[in-house]
Amino acid sequence: MKLGLLQCDHVVTELQSAHGDYPEQFKAVFERAGVSVDWQCFDATQKILPDDIDCCDAYITTGSRFGAYESLPWLTALQGFLRQLYQVDKPFVGICFGHQLMAQVLGGKVEKSAKGWGIGVSFNQVKQPKSWMRPFKPEVDLWVSHQDQVVELPAEIEVLGGSQFCPNYIIQRGKWLGIQGHPEFTKAYSRDLIKLRSEKYSPERVREAEYSMAASVDSERIIQWIAAFIQESLQNP
Questions:
Q1: Model-wide pTM > 0.90
Q2: Catalytic residue among 8, 96, 99, 166
Q3: What is the mean pLDDT of residues 211-217?
Q4: What is the CATH number of the domain that holds 208?
Q5: Mean per-residue pLDDT for 162-184?
Q6: How far is CA 162 from the centre of its chain?
């Protein structure tokens, strides 16, 4: 499977030496999950996007510090590319920011949530099981780092999983899949990121996040789900 990684940000310089940039994080979790991928990376923040949509079988986005609703030249270009993907029915998976961008491109609404920041581990329930969710598990627990949420859903979209804090956590429309959590994060990276950004959060939220870190996460399982989702999408023209 040839997968195009649309990079929408970079890991901050202070953390790159210990944790790598986003392409390294994605490659590492796919390897841990036993999913073989031929990667092609595109730095969308520099307006570097595929000249040929068919150069990859499917595309996946990284997270980002930016908001899907911001007016940025590179983001406008990326949204245009995603619309082209949708028009030709190309499989796409949006992670965190990409999940939000997917919803916005399809006609939904994203904004900063009144519930505040989600950090640490998020605990979610699968509401609509799918055939590609294998091996199946009714809970989806992943690292998160987000303040924005999808607050209005596009038409004809399915909500596959969520929680009280983030109801629209996993969404699907045809060959497009959005996941609010970060399967590519590790515990060490999440902890260092929270420490670096601690001034953004309330002490109570930091304490909750620290306690959540004792939980097991489903990172590798979610990568297996993503791979199966893409494979099924490619087999169903």
A1: yes
A2: 96
A3: 97
A4: 3.40.50.880
A5: 98
A6: 14
The string of pLDDT tens digits covering residues 156-167 is: 999 999 999 999
Q: Which residues contact 163 (CB under 8 A, 6 or more apart)?
A: 122, 123, 124, 125, 169
Distances (CA, A) of 169 to 100, 126, 151, 166, 231: 10, 10, 11, 6, 22
Amino acid 139 reads E
152 tagged catalytic: no
> 77: exposed, middle or buried (C-beta count within 10 Å: 0-12, 13-18, 19+)?
middle
Instruction: Given the residues 19, 99, 146, 182, select the one marked as catalytic.
Output: 182
- Measured distance CA(113)–CA(91) in Å, rounded: 28
Q: Please confirm, yes or no, whether 96 is among the known catalytic residues.
A: yes
pLDDT for the residue 237: 77
Domain that holds residue 145: 2-235
For residue 41, indicate whether it is catalytic: no
| Mean pLDDT computed over every residue of the chain | 97
Distances (CA, A) of 66 to 107, 120, 138, 157, 204: 19, 19, 31, 24, 25
Residue 236: pLDDT band by 50, 70, 90 thresholds?
confident
**What total of structural domains would you count in the chain?**
1
